[in-house]
Amino acid sequence: MAAQEAQKILRGIGFEVLPTDKKTLKFIASTAMTGKGVGGEREILADIAVEAVSSIAEKEDGKYKADIDNIQVEKKQGGAVADTKLIKGIILDKERVHPRMPRSLKNAKIALVDSALEIKKTEVEAKIQIKDPNQMQKFLDEEESTLKAMVEKVKRSGANVLICEKGIDDLAQHYLAKEGIYAVRRVKRSDMEKLSKATGAKIITNLDDLKLSELGAAEQVEEIKIVDSDMTFVTGCKNPKAVSILIRGGTEHVVDEVERALHDALKVVSVSIEDGVAVAGGGAPEIELALRLRDYGQSVGGREQLAIEAFAEALEVIPWTLAENAGMDALDIVIELKNAHAKKSGKYFGVDVLQGKVSDMMAEKVIEPLRVKTQAIESATEVASMILRIDDVIASKKSPPPAGPPGGPGGPGGMGGMGGMPPGMM
Q1: Residue predicted with more confidence, 184 or 354
Q2: Is the pTM of this model over 0.85?
Q3: Are residues 243 and 72 in contact, defined by beta-carbon separation less than 8 angstroms?
Q4: What 3-state DSSP class applies to 233?
Q5: With contact defined as beta carbons under 8 Å apart, do 11 and 277 qualify?
Q6: Nearest CA to 314 among 242, 360, 376, 227?
Q7: What is the DSSP letter of 155?
């Protein structure tokens, strides 16, 4: 009952966030990264998170959907955290397959192929017997012409960039380089799908189906050396529905920490765009819930009131812990918060950990998505209910030990009656 009422109250104290309101979305992203090891680069990362999620957000049946799986995150050690950047396209941790291929191509026409540009092996075991050298040469010529025909099909379609999910034969690489086609091989399926969303290309299995209408477009495809590895950048995609973020940092630990912080920022921005509702942070919603649930408990009465009041008390742990972690007097802060929330104008007051006092969280730009709060209450209630049910089951198993054999210890079959043996013989 308390959880249901809490969800209702939360929806009441939430406020609307529009997908176009990038300022508020940035505050939400920034709040999520507070306390993570990103230091003074929080502003830059918040901007990147908002821009990335806004790029991939789509409207379906009147509702927004922002799937962060369409945001590719690549990490590269070296450089500063401030060098982290958003790419309106896709980054592949792959290099071109042949050194004679162009390093950079403008106005790229991209073919995505999920089959190999190699001579296929037969499905069944087969042997070819060659009896004279001429036959051997014919066999090799046939292989060469087959691979050449594959490259011809790519060229004929108008593609100047080939991204292949499987292998590309050495000879095929040579012909592709001769035609000035930039090729990459063994690209992950997930990256192929992101490329399709970013460039508008369709993933083709049979090269015979490859034609101009199936190709994707990008302003530029180039190979760039980042630290010690070459990477392929597909950039300048028009209205891409998949984008990339290249994370930089001085050490491996820093890069991992930035990725963790950025993932949190991307997630909160995406749920804010999808739900369109946010609440103040800093423990403000929890104190408001605690006060309102106590009033609700009194209106319910009976034994349920005790449970609802216990639920309300549990919610006070959030601002209490925030104050404690900031080195403040938790008891004084919680009392101060309750007094502020007792007034109608104080529903957004929370713990300002930076200034060590109670402040209006909306004025301090500390904002969180509504879903973070509703999900927390839902999950915590389920866990608490489960623990209580398990405790009941364990408690019900406590029953008296089974009775001993008839006659007790000295009776037949008891310790004292071992074949009528006198006790002194034990």
Answers
A1: 184
A2: no
A3: yes
A4: strand
A5: yes
A6: 376
A7: H
